[in-house]
Amino acid sequence: MTSHEDFVQVHLCRPSQVNAVICRDVINICAGICPDALIAIVTNPVDSLVPVAAGVLKKRGAYRPEKLFGICQIDQMRAEHFYAEATGQEPEKVYVPVVGGHSEATTVPLFSKARPNVSLTAEETMTLINLVRKAASKIVHPTKTESVGATFSMATAALHFVHHLCRAVHDEPHVIISAYVESTVTKSGFFSNELLLGPHGIKENLGYGKVTKLEQQLIDEAVVKLQGEIKMVEDFIAKNVK
Hints:
By secondary structure, this protein is an alpha+beta fold.
């Protein structure tokens, strides 16, 4: 068991390389023991580890893209919290879709599609977007007056996502949730947006529809970042997965 300081250091010191190796080994076991399982990855960096998992499963002949997910719910939880706070609403009564990926540069909250919808200026929107994007780094790099740790928040986000998967597995209709998955919605091979789930995983990718000019610009920037991450993963798979 490691201390909290050890945990943070591991995540700050070459997280892609360290966690990619762990992900490779775990997914390799899954491919042999439970190739039909629904796999949801919450370990960071999600933008890289989901493609790593896909690459390993492909090598093992067990890849089913409709069954592999990257959990990004914590970004939506944060977006809903900040939006509710800014508009004087209760967080549990608002909905804010978030697309893109799961990093500061790839997370794109779509406040134009928030429900209930409250009109925001471009400046207000950008302020909220930056709050969502920088929330994780503020927790990992706290000031002297701030507490440390997003562990419980991540656990809540993972529970929320897995609960939706369980509902879909039991054939409950209209189960919709966002996740980072293999996608043709943008030019990035993996992308997060709303999905309709069914008993066997993704039933339909719902895309993200019409957005504002600012949101589309941020999505385009996120896609470039994601493409770079995916290219690095392809190199990792070629060198480290037999």
